[in-house]
Design brief:
Blueprint: E1 29-37, E2 40-44, E3 50-55, E4 67-72, E5 77-83, E6 89-93, E7 99-104, E8 108-114, H1 121-134, E9 137-143, H2 150-159, H3 161-166, E10 169-172, H4 181-188, E11 192-196, H5 203-210, H6 214-225, E12 236-239, E13 245-248, H7 262-265, H8 293-299, H9 305-317
Parallel strand pairs: 3-5, 8-9, 8-11, 9-10, 11-13
Antiparallel strand pairs: 1-2, 1-4, 2-3, 4-5, 6-7, 12-13
């Protein structure tokens, strides 16, 4: 089992997100952004009230999980005057390959997979790398466990064995049999987590199981926004009954990393950590360079060869120079 590094505060890579800083001149009361869509953010105050807020000009776009300062205006409306510095930010590239924040100030990424649709190593690895680089704890949840017989479950556990050996938490869950839901509740408690995964893995059913009053909550939010059920098409933060926060993000067919310097990308693979900095060349990319300790670790079985293939594929996507 690989020893986990201390969490780093970061956005796309190991550098802290400096795009959101406190303006000493800004005034207002503290608030939490539950969701953002169009020109409107849903902001929760310290008493649990929810307000429809516009963002002051010259401020960047808010995202789910942002801590802000805001000023009330009309009943149930207000203005965001400042976005406080983000501790962590989950980002992905948009259609124009520009960095697009998805959620802020989370400390745990829960990647939901299932047997159908079958999970892809590449996408799972990209989520895990994104979590490591931003300083969040990754958790792998295998949903729809009720569809597995003993043989198929054993085969799936073998496929996931590489991640268990690295030290990643794995939970098997089912909303039909309630298998693993107690353990999942415990994993989410005292954390701000985001639930991610491709469409069809049963994320919505999991959210409903974790939040039995979800329809009531959505109805309340719809009344504030005036947008009806459209509030479910964006990332949304919910408070869990047993403690902790859960951010539910819309399902995606794929997840792509933003551009990451290759020296940072290697740190996204937790099992590489003991070998980094020991290669012959200080700027080793761990691909074809001679004297590479990471490649030696693969050959000796200390690093899984399939994970090395995944790393090399990511290096290739970052460009010929690895950036």
């Amino acid at each position: 089992m690989t020893k986990r590094r201390p969490a780093r505060s970061s956005a796309a890579g190991p550098r802290a997100d400096k795009t959101a800083k406190t303006d000493k001149k800004a005034t207002g009361q503290p608030g939490l952004v539950l969701a953002h869509y169009g020109q409107v953010s849903l902001v929760e105050d310290d008493q649990g009230g929810i307000f429809r807020c516009a963002t002051r000009r010259k401020l960047q776009r808010t995202v789910c999980g942002d801590r802000v300062l805001w000023q009330p205006g009309n009943p149930r409306e207000g203005t965001i005057t400042e976005i406080l510095e983000r501790k962590t930010t989950l980002v992905r590239p948009d259609h124009n390959n520009r960095v697009r924040p998805v959620a802020a100030n989370l400390d745990q990424i829960v990647v939901v997979i299932a047997t159908r649709p079958s999970f892809e190593y590449g996408m799972l690895d990209r989520y895990l790398v994104a979590a490591e680089l931003m300083g969040a704890r990754p958790v792998i949840v295998v949903n729809k466990s009720d569809t597995l017989d003993d043989e198929s479950r054993h085969k799936l556990e073998q496929r996931l064995g590489v991640y268990r050996d690295i030290g990643y938490t794995q939970l098997f869950t089912s909303t039909r049999s309630t298998d693993g839901l107690t353990a999942l509740h415990g994993q989410l408690k005292a954390h701000t987590s985001i639930l991610v995964g491709q469409s069809g893995v049963g994320k919505s059913s999991l959210v409903q199981a974790l939040l039995p009053d979800l329809d009531i909550r959505i109805g309340t939010l719809s009344q504030v926004t005036g947008l009806g059920r459209h509030t479910t098409t964006v990332a949304m933060l919910y408070h869990l009954p047993d403690g902790g926060n859960l951010i539910d993000s819309p399902g995606v067919r794929d997840f792509t990393l933003c551009q990451v310097p290759v020296e940072d990308l290697a740190r996204g693979f937790l099992e590489f950590e003991p070998f980094l900095g020991q290669c012959r060349f200080h700027n080793c990319r761990h691909v074809t360079e001679p004297g590479c300790v990471v490649q030696d670790a693969v050959r000796s079985g200390k690093i899984n060869a399939r994970r090395m293939d995944s790393y090399r594929e990511l290096v290739a996507t970052m460009g010929k120079n690895g950036k």
